[in-house]
Design brief:
The strands form 3 sheets. Strands 2, 3, 4, 5, 6 and 7 form a 6-stranded antiparallel beta sheet that branches. A 5-stranded antiparallel beta sheet has the order 1-8-13-12-9, with no helix packed on it. It has strands at 11-15, 26-30, 43-46, 53-55, 68-76, 82-85, 100-105, 110-115, 128-129, 131-132, 147-148, 160-165, 179-184. By secondary structure, it is mainly β. The chain is globular, with a radius of gyration of 17 Å. A hairpin with a 6-residue loop joins β3 (43-46) and β4.
Amino acid sequence: MANVDAPRGLVPLKMLGDKYETAGFSTYKLASGYTSNLFNGTAVELNAATGTVIIATDDISASAKILGVAGGVSYTDSTGKPVWKNMWTASTTTKGSVDADIKVYDDPDQLFVVQADGAVAQANVGENAPMTGNANGNTTNGISSMELDFSALAAASDQLRVIGFVQDPNNTAGSTNVDVIVRINSHAYTNLAGI
C-alpha cells in the first residue's frame, strides 16, 4: 500500500532514549508585524539581532542553529482581543506592537515525526538531511507542510537526523512519503557557540 502524501511539518513524538515525555514547550517572543506566515510544525531559530523567533531556513549552511519547532502563538490583537492560534499570519500587528508569545518545542532530545519527500529506507537510518519547504503551510488549519529532503540524505552534517520509522501498517519504509522519526541535529542548545 502506498504511503499517504500528507506533509505536516515536525510533529512531537517522544524523547530520545527512555526519558519521561511531557511534549513540553517553552515560550519565546515573536515580533509584532513579523512579515512571514509561521505555521505549527515549522522549525524556528532565534534572530541574533532581536532575540525573537523567526523561521529557520531549509539550508543549514545559510541558517543559525534550530531552536525548536513552533507549536502555536498567543497575543492581543490590535482591537484588544486575546488570540490563541495554530499559526502566525504574516504582518499581524499586536496591540501596542508588543511581541507575541510563541510556544516552541525546544528540548534537544525531542524526537519528531516528519514526512519524507522520497523513499527513505532502513539503510538511511543515522543519516542527516535538510528540511524542504519549512516556510510553507496550510493557512486554513495553520499546519506546516515542511518535509525531510530525501534527495540530500547523507552522512554529512545537516539539520535533521533520521532515527527510525513510524511503526504503522500504513507506513512503508522504502516508499515515497514515508513518515520518519527524526531528531534536530543542528540544535541551538547542543551547539557551544551562541547565536
